[in-house]
């Protein structure tokens, strides 16, 4: 399935390509809507944060974890998911060490997580995608240069001073700040997805993500988006990192302008 904006652009990853008559160019026709799934949650939204403990991304582990914690703490301060606190568990992801990734996923699965925030590693994401799909767990991870569509921005966002302070309140030990914003945005988006789907099961969160990162009314914060959802069935959550372009097949997310679908590089 190709990455897309999913609500209004190639929803649920179904892409139909037709030849555009006399022009000879390909025309993309989206399917009308994402397909709802049967509820499977237990009433508690559990998020697994898999931070890189090895490889070149290890330096960003604390920022990713702090971004997830910051988002969860803010949502819980506002009442949690469906009036129940969101839970978060932090585990390692071995960028280049498949055994670490497997062990962490197995532990999170045993603890009943509904969604996993993974690092910006093409190899980790490729390893996790079939495991998460088989287990019914939603998966989201920032794209990297190795798996993003050609032309997509994969450079991590540099937080401004205000957000840097917020990250360090979440974890005073944070040094390198890259991927803190992305982790925060993806966590908020996942919680909004569960809210829209009215279920915390992994399949529902993935379905909900397709409807909170689409072509609905734009909103830029958790509280603002909740307000819009009182009257709307889809929204376009645009956080600090920009527009979220999400593939429910792979869990890959890139931020910013949507890129017309083409073949993507293989994981390295």
From TrEMBL:
Residues 45-157 form the Leucine-binding protein domain. It comes from the Bacteria. InterPro entries: BCAA_transport (IPR051010), Leu-bd (IPR028081), Peripla_BP_I (IPR028082). Gene3D superfamilies: 3.40.50.2300. Keywords: Signal. Pfam families: Peripla_BP_6. Belongs to the leucine-binding protein family. This is Leucine-binding protein domain-containing protein. It comes from Alpinimonas psychrophila.
């Amino acid at each position: 399935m190709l990455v897309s904006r999913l609500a209004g652009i190639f929803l649920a990853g179904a892409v139909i390509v037709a030849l555009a008559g006399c022009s000879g160019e390909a025309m993309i026709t989206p399917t009308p809507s994402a397909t709802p799934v049967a509820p499977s949650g237990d009433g508690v939204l559990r998020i697994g944060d898999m931070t890189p403990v090895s490889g070149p991304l290890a330096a960003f582990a604390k920022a990713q974890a702090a971004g997830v914690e910051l988002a969860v703490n803010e949502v819980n301060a506002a009442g949690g998911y469906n009036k129940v606190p969101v839970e978060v568990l932090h585990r390692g992801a071995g960028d280049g060490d498949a055994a670490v990734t497997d062990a962490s996923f197995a532990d999170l699965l045993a603890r009943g997580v509904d969604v996993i925030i993974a690092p910006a590693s093409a190899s980790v994401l490729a390893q996790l995608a079939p495991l998460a799909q088989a287990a019914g767990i939603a998966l989201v991870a920032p794209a990297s240069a190795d798996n993003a569509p050609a032309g997509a921005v994969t450079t991590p966002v540099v937080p401004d001073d205000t957000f840097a302070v917020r990250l360090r309140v979440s974890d005073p030990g944070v040094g390198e700040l890259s991927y803190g914003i992305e982790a925060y945005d993806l966590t908020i988006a996942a919680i909004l997805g569960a809210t829209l789907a009215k279920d915390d099961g992994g399949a529902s969160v993935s379905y909900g993500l397709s409807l909170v990162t689409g072509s609905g009314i734009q909103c830029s914060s958790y509280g603002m988006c909740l307000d819009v959802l009182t009257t709307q069935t889809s929204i376009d959550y645009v956080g600090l990192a920009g527009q979220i372009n999400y593939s429910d097949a792979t869990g890959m997310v890139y931020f910013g302008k949507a890129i017309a679908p083409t073949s993507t590089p293989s994981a390295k």
